Amino acid sequence: MRREPCVRTGRAPMDLLPDPAPLATKLENTLLRYHSIADSEWRIARKTKDAVVWRKPSEEFSGYLYKAQGVVEDVTNRIVDHIRPGPYRLDWDSLMTTMDIVEVFEENCCVMRYTTAGQLWNIIAPREFVDFSYTTSYEDGLLSCGISLNYGEVRPNFVRGFNHPCGWFCVPLKDCPSHSLLTGYIQTELRGMLPQSAVDTAMASTLANFYSDLKKALKS
Q1: Among candidates 183, 179, 156, which has minimal Cα distance to 169?
Q2: Domain START: where (predicted)?
Q3: What angle do CA 170, 140, 101 make, to 5 degrees?
Q4: I need a surface site. Which of 59, 87, 161, 217 has the fewest CB within 10 A?
């Protein structure tokens, strides 16, 4: 059954948070459009035994939109539970150092604040993000998507990054429902004074490592 776009609960609204329902709908439609981009528009950025990572110029900012895809040996719901905001993500994601849920609109819709570790021998310093997250049904599986918000004060010693529309499609394999095809679209604007080559290297490596870390977590 398809989930309805999230709505505010009876709690008092937080001044700078957007109305979640139209944002969720717009975000979902953007991810569906990315998912329909022709294969010929993508260029391979990295390939490992766990995943393939492609990229193309982003329409949102001067960097790249990355696409990652790989088969994960588990059922769709369990995989998405490990990816979306919740008790699992912080335990296995080697890049994420803290995560706090700022506001819950519904079970499938929230705002979270999280921090990431430094990368490439700290050429890329620790980052902080505040993201709107929404999970809904897609075909026989799920889509978990998000976008950053300009909300709240930046923590000391962190640079505030920004995730343009991003998300993960997870669907069971037709010939093997106990395995799932996981496809992600990520376009992170790290901000700060960074050489573009360092950003490109970090993004491709991070996405490849995401799959290997996720697989280890699901087996434990």
Answers
A1: 183
A2: 23-220
A3: 50
A4: 87
Say if residues 146 and 135 touch (Cβ distance below 8 Å): no
Q: Output the six-digit token pair for 160.
A: 């505030």
Predicted TM-score (pTM) of the model is: 0.89
Domain spans of the chain, in order of start? 20-34+41-219
Q: What is the pLDDT of residues 117-168, one digit of tens each?
A: 887 656 678 899 999 999 999 999 999 999 999 998 888 888 899 999 999 9
Cβ proximity of 90 and 217 under 8 Å: no
Spatial separation of the C-alpha atoms in residues 138 and 145, rounded to whole Å? 11
Q: Residue 76 corresponds to which tokens in the numbers above? A: 């769709």
**Fold type of domain 20-34+41-219:** Alpha-D-Glucose-1,6-Bisphosphate; Chain A, domain 4 (3.30.530)
* Secondary structure of the chain in HEC code, one letter for each residue: CCCCCCCCCCCCCCCCCCCHHHHHHHHHHHHHHHHCCCHHHCEEEEECCCCEEEEEECCCCCCEEEEEEEEECCCHHHHHHHHCCCCCHHHHCCCEEEEEEEEEEECCEEEEEEEECCECCCCECCEEEEEEEEEEEECCEEEEEEEECCCCCCCCCCEECEECCEEEEEEEECCEEEEEEEEEEECEECCCCCCHHHHHHHHHHHHHHHHHHHHHHHHC
